[in-house]
Amino acid sequence: MNEFWEAKVRLQWAELGESYDVVIIGGGGHGLATAYNLAVHHGITNVAVIEKDYIGGGNSGRNTAVIRSNYGKPEPVRFYQRSVELYRQLESETERWVMHDERGLWWLAHTEAGRRQERARAEINRAFGADTTFVEPEEIERGIPGINMDANGEFPITGGSFHAGGATARHDRVNWAFAEGAMRAGVTIVQGVTVEGLMMDGDRVVGVRTDRGNVAAGTVVGAVGGHATTIASMAGVRLPIRTHPLQAFVTNHYERTFDAIVASNDLGFYLSQTARGEILGGSHIDPQPSYSRRSGHDFMSEISRRVIALFPFMGRLRVLRQWTGICDMSPDYSPIMGLTPAPGFLITTGWGTWGFKAIPASGEAMAQLIATGATPELIEPFSIDRFANDRTLADRGSSGTH
Amino acid sequence: MALRIPCPTCGERAIDEWVHGEIINVPAEITDPDRRDLDRGYFHNNTEGVVEEAWFHLYGCRRWISLRRDTRTDTFL
Predict the structure, then answer these.
(1) Strand pairing of A101-102 and A105-109?
(2) Who among A227, A240, A294 is closest to B44 (CB)?
(3) Structural domain of residue B55, as residue ranges?
(4) What CATH number should be reported for the domain whose range is A101-166+244-328?
(5) SS3 of A146-196
C-alpha cells in the first residue's frame, strides 16, 4: 500500500509491544476482522495483528471477491448467509466504501445431473435463509448478456440457479476498512514481522517468537492463509490441510456492462466484471500441493477456451494480468475454525477457495469465541474435532470453486 | 505453474499426464491405533519444503515413480 492510500484510509501503524491479551498471526481479512470485532464489539483492545508481508497481501488481496451463501449443506448455508448479511451492513458499520455490489450470481448446469443439483441447491438454500431459485435455460438466456447457450455443443446449458444474494466487493477496501476500524479502536497492527515460533508452557501456547522479539499473549490466533500448517505445527497441532495454488486473471477493460456473476462447475470457472470494467475470472486449484505462487500458460489457455465457448464476445478481450494464491484445502471443502488441542491457540483456516466471502462472519464468530471462551453455535460444526467425530461437511457447493 | 515432471521412461512430460500421489507418513509419536487411522485418513504433513512423493504417469508409461520436490518453488531435486 502506498502513502497516498495510507493517508486516504488513515492507517496508523504502531510499534510491536511485548505483551497482549490476544495476538493474531496473519493480517489478512480474517485476522483483521477478528481484531476489529474484538476491539469494537467486545472492548478487548489490547490486541496485536502480526503480518509478515503487508496487510491484505496474501489471499485476501488475490481472491476473485465474490460473496455468496448458496452452499449445499445446512451448516455452511447458515454461516455464509450471516456473512452475506454482515457484508450488506459493512459500509455503514465501518463508514468506509468497500464497493459492495449485490447483483446476483448465476450458477449454471450443463448436464441432467447438474440440473438436479441446482434444484437441490435452491431448495436447501431457501430452507436455511439464502435467496436462491432454480432457473430454466430461457431465464438464463434473458438474464446473462452475450451467453452462448449451447457452448459450441460442448457444454449445453440445461438449467441453473440464481442466487439473489450473490455480490462482489473490492477486497483491498474490505481489508482496509477492518484494519482502520481496528486501529481506531486501539489495536496494534504491524507489518513486515515474521513469526518464527510459538512460546510454549507445556502444551499451552503463551506467546509468539518473532524476528522483532518475543511477544507474550493470553490467546494466540493462527489466521494465516497458505501457511496455516507451518504455524500450527509450531504449537504441535496437526491439520487436515493441503496447500494448493489457485490461479486467476483479469482481462482488459470491456466497454459494456456485464452485470452477472457467473459460475459453472462443469466448465470449472467463475467470472464477474470489476468496477474498472475488467472481466475477472478464476478456475480450479492446481493438482499438486505446493506453496509456489507462479502462474502458468496451461491454465490461461485452458480457461480461455472454456470462457470463450460460453461467452464468444470475450474472445476479443486481452488478458491483462494473471496471478496465483495458495489455498488451504480441507478434506471436506469446509473451513476449520475454533479451539485446537493446544490450549491458548485458536485457529481459523481451511479457507481454501471460499475465504473472502466469510471474512465478516468468521471475524465476528472468532471474536465471540475469544471474548466468551465458548464456541458460537454458528461455527461449532466447523471445529477441527469433526474429523475424529465423523461429522465432516463434504459440500459440493464449495468444491473447486470460489 | 505448468509443472513438467521428469519421467525415467518417457522424458519430461506436462503435469496433465500425471496423477499426484502423497506418501502418507503418520508421525511415530501418534501411538493410539484409532488416532493413527484418523491421521492416515485426514491429516497431512503438508510440508513447506522438500517432500518425497509419488507420481503415476497415467497418460504415458503407466508407472508409479517416486520424486523429491521442493514445494516452495515446485522444482524437482
Answers:
(1) unpaired
(2) A240
(3) 4-26+33-76
(4) 3.30.9.10
(5) CCCCCHHHCCCCCEEEEECCCEECCHHHHHHHHHHHHHHCCCEEECCCCEE
Query: Any idea what the CATH number is for the domain that residue B47 is in?
Result: 3.30.2270.10
How many CB pairs lie under 8 A apart between chains A and B? 68
The total number of structural domains in chain B stands at 1
Contacts of B14 (CB under 8 A, 6+ apart): A298, B2, B3, B4, B5
Contact in structure between A39 and A187 (CB atoms under 8 Å): yes
Cα distance between residue A311 and residue A50, in whole Å: 43
| A319 CA: distance to closest CA in chain B (Å) | 17
The type of residue at A71 is Y
Residue A398, pLDDT above cutoff 80 = no
Residue A297's pLDDT is what? Answer: 87
pLDDT exceeds cutoff 80 at A48 = yes
pLDDT of residue A81: 97
What number is the average pLDDT over the span A61-86?
A: 94
User: A209: which strand partners?
Assistant: A197, A214
Query: Using CA atoms, how far apart are residues A210 and A194, in angstroms rounded to an integer?
Result: 6
How far CA B52 is from CA of A39, A384, B11, B22, B58, in Å, comes to 44, 27, 19, 8, 19
pLDDT exceeds 70 at position A400: no
- Please determine, for residue A402, whether its predicted confidence score (pLDDT) is greater than 50: no
Helix pair A112-127, A74-94: axis angle to 10 deg: 60
The radius of gyration of chain B's CA atoms, rounded to the nearest angstrom, is 15
Whether pLDDT at A229 is above 50: yes
pLDDT tens figures, B25-48 = 899 999 999 999 999 999 999 999
Q: Where are the domains of chain A?
A: 101-166+244-328
Contact A292 B46 (CB under 8 A): no
What lies within 8 Å, CB to CB, of A82 at 6+ separation is A361, A364, A378
Q: Residue A6: is its pLDDT beyond 90?
A: no
pLDDT at A103 over 90: yes
C-alpha span between A345 and B46 (Å, rounded): 20
Give B20's contacts in chain A (Cβ within 8 Å).
287-289
Nearest to B1 among A242, A295, A331 (CB): A295
Cβ atoms < 10 Å from Cβ of A1: 18
| pLDDT greater than 70 at residue B1 | no
Q: For residue A227, which residues of chain B lie inside 8 Å, CB to CB?
A: 48
pLDDT band at A396 (very low <50, low <70, confident <90, very high): low
Give the whole-angstrom CA distance, residue A187 versus residue A266.
44
Q: Does B14 touch chain A (CB under 8 A)?
A: yes
Sign of CA dihedral A117, A123, A127, A131: positive
Parallel, antiparallel or unpaired: strands A261-264 and A345-349: unpaired
